[in-house]
Specification:
binds iron/sulfur cluster; Rossmann fold; single chain; 12 strands; alpha/beta; four-stranded parallel sheet; binds 1,3-dihydroxyacetonephosphate
């Protein structure tokens, strides 16, 4: 490609969030991505909510905790993050001197967006003696206002690691926060944020599914609302849900989280049936529109041209990374492994 064509594509990238270039439809993208990984000493990290083709080409697939742990342990020079913005930011904060690529910079997160740092700063001032625990699904700037991060895998352990006499602010997910209050018995001050994907499951449709599948276990992610969690046979992060479906003897599961996780569940337990819990609209399953902005074409282009890159200001990295380091420290002590 000529320099001027790339310059035009880069200009568009600023507006669109990704390199808007045509990809030859006859190209074997899997082979090309594998070649680029070797050429550039790059690793592809993918969240369970990515489309199945991306999961299949990734070097590591995991939940938010596993992905952060992998971002620390990798010796690759380039980290390509098939996930959303806050995840790539976390990888960058943990690897300030490496190149971190996100195939589409507009792959955001409704939950992270529900907690603007300038408003949270004011909220936090009302509770000066409280420890701030933030779900990792938040912006890098919010992490600079946070004492310790958590993910859905380790949230309970992180809350329990804080002395009993200390007040705790929990941000940004009110649903995960409410579930943690029940699990730990701690009185948390909750920020009023939520994930658009986990807030629209339909109780009625789930009831119908359970009536027609009485042998199915109903499992849910703790970002779901209380009325959904109350009826679940098991609640856990994406990796915990996956493990449960492998280990549980049931042959059928109704799964209340983003539908991308079903790919790994089906691969891990070929004989079992997985039914996505339906949302409150005309769709049969629930996709995160942010996660699904990534495509194989965007992944390939981003590796080829090493764009778009996630860049953070130095002060954000220095101040924010402490909350992630603290989370990884507590998790390692509690025995959380990738
Ligand atoms: P986990 O990866 O912690 O399961 O969280 C799910 C999620 O919503 C990621 O965006
Ligand atoms: Fe954010 Fe929810 Fe999408 Fe996860 S599923 S990236 S929390 S909007």
């Amino acid at each position: 490609m000529s320099n001027s064509a790339l310059a035009t594509a880069t200009e568009k990238l600023n507006r669109k969030g990704f390199l808007d270039l045509e990809v030859d439809p006859t190209l074997d993208l899997v082979a090309e991505i594998e070649k680029l990984k070797k050429e550039k000493n790059a690793i592809v990290l993918a969240h369970y909510y990515q489309e199945s083709e991306i999961q299949d080409v990734a070097d590591y697939i995991g939940d938010s905790l596993g992905l952060s742990q992998k971002a620390v342990s990798t010796d690759a020079e380039v980290i390509v993050f098939a996930g959303v913005h806050f995840m790539a930011e976390t990888a960058k904060m943990l690897n300030p001197h490496k190149k971190v690529l996100l195939p589409d910079l507009k792959a955001g997160c409704s939950l992270a967006d529900s907690c603007p740092p300038h408003l949270f700063k004011k909220f936090k001032e009302k509770y000066p003696d409280h420890v701030v625990v933030s779900y990792i699904n938040c912006t890098a700037e919010l992490k600079t206002l946070t004492d310790v991060c958590c993910t859905s895998s380790n949230a309970e352990v992180i809350i329990n690691s804080i002395p009993k006499d200390k007040g705790i602010i929990f941000a940004p997910d009110k649903n995960l926060g409410a579930w943690l209050q029940k699990k730990t018995g701690r009185d948390l001050v909750l920020w009023n944020g939520a994930c658009m994907v986990h807030e629209i499951f339909s109780n009625e449709k789930i009831t119908k599914l359970q009536v027609s599948n009485p042998d199915a276990k109903f499992i849910a992610h703790p970002e779901c609302e209380e009325h959904i969690l109350d009826r679940a046979d098991f609640i856990g992060s994406t990796s915990q849900l996956l493990r449960y479906t492998k280990e549980n003897e049931s042959k059928k599961f109704i799964v209340a989280t983003e539908s991308g996780i079903l790919h790994q569940m089906e691969l891990a337990s070929p004989g079992k049936i997985f039914i996505p819990a339906p949302p409150n609209n005309t769709c049969a399953c629930n996709d995160c529109p942010h996660m699904k902005r990534n495509t194989m074409e965007k992944l390939y282009l981003s590796m080829k041209y090493e764009l778009p890159e996630v860049v953070l200001e130095d002060w954000v990295i220095k101040k924010g990374v402490a909350s992630i380091d603290r989370m990884l420290e507590v998790s390692a002590k509690a025995g959380f492994k990738m």
